[in-house]
Write a structure and sequence with these properties.
71 residues; 5 helices
């Protein structure tokens, strides 16, 4: 897994700490840190909780972009 810089950027744009986001999503700060570092693959339930908190979509934060996708 690669680092989730989109999650980190969205969290920072909301002026939230990892702890703030973790509390809102119902997980530990360490879980948010592991997701941002690409060391943990969150459940869809956790992904949607994070998206709701940050006003983002799953596509915005979690779906990897493929260079060979056709539009």
């Amino acid at each position: 897994m690669s680092k989730n810089l989109r999650l980190k950027a969205a969290r920072a744009a909301k002026d939230m700490t990892q702890k703030d986001l973790a509390d809102a999503a119902g997980v530990s700060r360490q879980t948010i840190n592991a997701i941002e570092l690409g060391e943990y693959n969150p459940s869809i339930k956790l992904c949607t909780a994070i998206c709701r908190t940050l006003d983002k979509t799953l596509n915005d934060l979690f779906w990897e972009e493929s260079s060979d996708e056709k539009i």
